[in-house]
């Protein structure tokens, strides 16, 4: 039998015993690069999944702790999905995936690993699944989280500049 080393998984295993809500704590630390927080809006933020299903796996999270959709007010719900739309475009531009899985896991039985509402955006490529997850229970992520973080930040900033220029032209 061959051994495949995935030492980064130990951090995930150990974190399961942490007290408190990860999505409430990380934004308070003001360490966006270290915590892979890509964007802070008025009511939501975007954070990269530290243990991604695929390269570029993002989570869009309401800033206010909430466990289900009914708990969000109209403004929070609107911003949540506006941000999903923008960051799907960022991923399309920056990583050029062939498709996406976009979803919400509610409750432990629904697959929620963190009891704070969040939307997953998982870029997908044709052929992105192979024998590794099936035979070795290992997922191969081809690019470092740091490299993906800076690539996506740059694409987001460029898209926002273009949007601002269009808005200014439209007003004149």
Task: Explain how this protein is built.
This protein has six helices and five strands. It has a single domain, classed as HIT family, subunit A, CATH 3.30.428.10. The model is unreliable at about 130-135 (pLDDT under 50). Strand 1 (about 35-40) and strand 2 form a beta hairpin. It is globular and about 50 Å long. It has a five-stranded antiparallel beta sheet, sandwiched between helices. The chain has about 170 residues and is an alpha+beta fold.
Key words describing this protein structure:
172 residues, alpha+beta, HIT family, subunit A, five-stranded antiparallel sheet, 6 helices, 42% helix, 15% strand, globular
Order of the strands making up the biggest sheet: 1-2-3-5-4
Q: Determine the mean pLDDT.
A: 84
For the biggest sheet, the summary is: 5 strands, antiparallel
Our count of domains comes out at 1
- The parts where pLDDT drops under 50 for at least 5 residues are 130-136
The number of distinct β-strands equals 5
CATH C-level class is: Alpha Beta
Tell me the layout of helices and strands:
Blueprint lengths: L8 H7 L6 H7 L3 H4 L1 E4 L3 E5 L9 E5 L11 H22 L3 E5 L15 E6 L6 H6 L8 H27 L1
Antiparallel strand pairs: 1-2, 2-3, 3-5, 4-5
């Amino acid at each position: 039998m061959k051994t495949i080393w995935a030492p980064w998984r130990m951090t995930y295993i150990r974190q399961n015993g942490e007290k408190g809500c990860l999505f409430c704590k990380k934004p308070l630390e003001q360490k966006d690069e270290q915590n892979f927080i890509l964007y802070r809006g008025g009511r939501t933020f975007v954070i990269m999944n530290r243990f991604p299903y695929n390269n570029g796996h993002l989570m869009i999270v309401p800033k206010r702790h909430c466990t289900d959709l009914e708990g969000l007010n109209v403004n929070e719900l609107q911003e949540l999905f506006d941000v999903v739309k923008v960051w799907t475009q960022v991923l399309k531009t920056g990583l050029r995936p062939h498709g996406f899985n976009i979803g919400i896991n509610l409750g432990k039985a629904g697959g929620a690993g963190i009891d704070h509402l969040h939307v997953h955006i998982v870029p997908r490529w044709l052929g992105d699944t192979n024998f590794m997850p099936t035979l070795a229970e290992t997922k191969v992520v081809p690019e470092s989280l740091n490299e993906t973080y800076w690539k996506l930040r740059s694409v987001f900033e460029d898209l926002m500049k273009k949007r601002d220029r269009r808005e200014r032209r439209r007003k004149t």
